[in-house]
Amino acid sequence: MRYVAGRLLHGVALLVLVSVFSFAFAHLAPGDYYTELRNDPRISGATIEGLREQAGLHGSLARQYAAWGASMLKGDFGYSLAYQGPVAPILWERLRATLLLTGAATVLAWLLAVPLGIWNAVYRGTWKDTAARVGLAVLILIPDLLLAILFLLLAVETGWFPVGGMRSAEFPSLGAGRKVADVAWHVALPAAVLVLGLLPVLVRHVRASMAEAIDAPFGQAARAHGIPLRRRLFRHLLPAALNPLVSLFGISIGTLLSASLLVEVVMGWPGLGPLFLDAVMARDFGVVLAVVMLSTAFLIAGNLVADLLLYGLDPRIRVK
Amino acid sequence: MTIPRPTRIRLGLWYLGILHAAVLLAGFLAPYPFAEQHRDFPYAAPMAIHWFDRQGAFHLRPFVNGLVPDLASGQYREDPAQVFPIHFWAPNHAAASGWLPAPRRLFGVTEPGVVFLLGSDGYGRDVFSRLVYGGQVSLFTGLLAAGLSLGLGLAMGTAAGFFGGWTDALLMRGAELVMALPWLYLLLAVRAFLPLHISTLQAFFLLIAIIGGVGWVRPARLIRGVVLSARESGFVQAARGFGAGPAYLIRRHILPFTAGVVLTQATVLIPQYILAEVTLSFLGLGVGEPVPSWGNMLAEARQYHALMNHPWLLAPGLAAVPILLGYITLADALTSRHGS
After folding, report:
1. Which residues from A are below 8 Å from B279, CB to CB?
2. CATH superfamily name and code, B129-335
């Protein structure tokens, strides 16, 4: 229990520190949302100064941070100057889309990677293993960006998949079952890009960690006992090989979020990525900070889950 | 693999060296300056180089045909009546562009003929030329940013590992802070807080500073681990016993020890950073027009209706593949142990 509380506290402390640093950074940044407005000849300098005053940009750093922190805690997630309102309502919609995409991609990638990695480890050294490894090596050579553009092209050329968006226009009139199918149809291509990007890394780790378990004395002993292959793999070897994979799960969240940002922008998925990019371009620091905090919270949560899973799975950590 | 490790490393280095040299020599290899527009030929398809003319006679000097707009298809059609021989080692009249202006160029045709090996973009600019020039930005951002990351990582990692105590605690907590953000989000956030409208050269160095400055954490952690084990090793203890100071110890005994991990990290970081540059420029936050980078060239391919009819605009994305292949093979050769 102390371990859990410690990890939790550590995560929260990290989050607070990130918020302090990123807020200070945003504050020290040359220019703000209104600097971009100055290019508009219809708005006078005095008006802009007035707007700055109104937005509270003249207060001290500490006071501004306190105000911002309070709005974060209240659930407003800061104030967007471009949208003229609290960030939260815009954010939740986008967050749901990103969660759906990355969640689907994670589940799919692991569902594919674990059997594929095990299969590779079992057939280590044979042509089957080599073929799979060459295939994955080719996959790793293709940048995510190129893959996303190619898949987009595929969608346009064939018309089998929708181009951009999360729902069809007639979504509200569909039945519940059709609604799910519609969203799944929209998520398929962006998720496929993410899965293909993630797969080579995951499979390599599953293969390495399973190969180690197969070669370990207990693995050899289980084999000598005549335990059938399938039972041996899933009952004896996989649990022993699980530890590094659980850590990898935590690490892969960060990679996935980064890849997702790019894929969302290219393929028009209405997630955090396009929102973030637009905010960066418009220098809408309220939104930028909110997205930074949210993505950080995700990554920390992912690592926390991995830590706790490890804690639950491996008694050795509990003793230490 | 049956190829021995040293040979594989040497091959990888030669391969990458040639690719980088080619990009550096863009002034010589590219038939056109990167910004030269051929307003009569937007979106021309990659052109065929001919050795046989209409009568089937062979020409030692290859030639290209003139392009004629084909109104029916909206594309271009080759006109066999117009023949433009390709001149090799031709004098380079164009204004110097890029880093290394060359007095001669490898090949070109005389006006009004054009040679677009990989087609042209919406402004009628030669994609091949822009690809080679764009490589200067993309590849060297990768190299220099990786240099910066490794330099920072080396300094931080060595300090943390060698001195331990509060230095170690402070640096490693700082590292944790940087790692708490997803990489691309961190990159974009840092870019967001810096001025948007800047010159190309500023953008180039800004990219290097951001990508390199954000990425020091992983190498620093790995280097710290190596330094920790080196610090406790016998020869360091012995040198310490003979009265060696920290500066001497680090320079003479610790740093050489980290060479392995630094080299391996370099082969991992450089391709990653090349892709980071491509990504940032693609998103419009890197090097801007008219200076090409593989990223901002790909941005044109983002409009899928343009891309559908002009698939050669994908060339800058494909150009990254052989580069990645080189670095991944090199990393593989460096990390592989004997026998495996």
Report:
1. 145, 262
2. MetI-like (1.10.3720.10)
